[in-house]
């Protein structure tokens, strides 16, 4: 299966626009970034979801939920190491050429049952004073008070299945 250059460029433009709008930065090494994005396009075609291009995906959405890009580990890795595991997303300093991305350990638990999508939701009991339940995006921490989680996180674009009941 081949990628068209247009598909990769279209996804690059989308991710870049979303990143700029929401305070994230794509790696400024454009050829490297395009290779990663090509991996996302390939995984979308192969599995039907954009599994992380640097990790071994299962191919089943529920199993891969924590590593659908942006993965559940992105923000903590940017905070601690200046880049996500693949270095598709980087810190402002790296984006501006003031620092370099270094290799980092994979934060994803090796044991399946320890992965976020298989954890019991830890949110407190629903607060009867609130008119709506509160949902938290596992990827970026966005909170939404409404009857159902948003279909897509407005900040990081993670889908509904990646929200936990927060309170
Ligand atoms: S955000 Fe996560 S899933 Fe996306 S490229 Fe980076 S490490 Fe991979």
Short characterization:
The chain is built from five helices and five strands.
Percent strand = 5-15%
Overall SS class: alpha+beta
The overall pLDDT average reads: 92
- Mind telling me the C-alpha Rg? 17 Å
Largest sheet: 3 strands, antiparallel
| Bound ions, cofactors and other small molecules, one mention each | iron/sulfur cluster
CATH architecture title of the largest domain: Alpha-Beta Complex
CATH topology of the largest domain: Ferredoxin Thioredoxin Reductase
Terminal residue distance: 44 Å
Percent helix, as a range, is: 25-40%
Q: Strands across the major sheet, in which order? A: 4-3-5
Description:
The protein has 167 residues and is α+β, with helices and mostly antiparallel strands. The chain folds into two domains: 5-117, Alpha-Beta Complex (Ferredoxin Thioredoxin Reductase), CATH 3.90.460.10; 121-167, Rubrerythrin, domain 2. The chain contains five helices and five strands; from the N terminus they run H-E-H-H-H-E-H-E-E-E. It has a three-stranded antiparallel beta sheet with strand order 4-3-5, with no helix packed on it. A two-stranded antiparallel ribbon has the order 1-2. Helix 1 crosses helix 2 (30-47). The chain is globular. It starts with a helix and ends with a strand. The mean pLDDT is 92. Residues 36, 52-54, 67, 69-71, 74, 84-86, 88-89 line the site of iron/sulfur cluster.
Topology of helices and strands:
Elements: H1 5-22, E1 25-26, H2 30-47, H3 61-64, H4 74-81, E2 89-90, H5 92-95, E3 134-137, E4 143-145, E5 163-165
Helix pairs in contact: 1-2
């Amino acid at each position: 299966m081949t990628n068209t250059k247009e598909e990769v460029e279209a996804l690059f433009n989308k991710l870049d626009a979303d990143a700029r709008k929401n305070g994230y930065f794509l790696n400024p090494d454009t050829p490297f970034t395009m290779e990663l994005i090509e991996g996302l396009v390939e995984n979308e075609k192969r599995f039907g979801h954009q599994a992380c291009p640097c990790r071994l995906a299962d191919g089943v959405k529920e199993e891969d939920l924590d590593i659908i890009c942006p993965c559940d580990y992105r923000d903590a890795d940017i905070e601690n190491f200046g880049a996500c595991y693949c270095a598709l997303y980087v810190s402002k300093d790296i984006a501006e050429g003031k620092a370099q991305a270094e290799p980092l350990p994979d934060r994803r638990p090796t044991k399946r049952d320890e992965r976020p999508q298989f954890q019991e939701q830890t949110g407190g009991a629903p607060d009867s004073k609130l008119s709506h339940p509160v949902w938290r995006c596992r990827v970026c921490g966005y909170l939404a008070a409404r009857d159902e989680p948003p279909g897509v996180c407005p900040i990081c674009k993670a889908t509904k299945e990646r929200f936990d009941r927060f309170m």
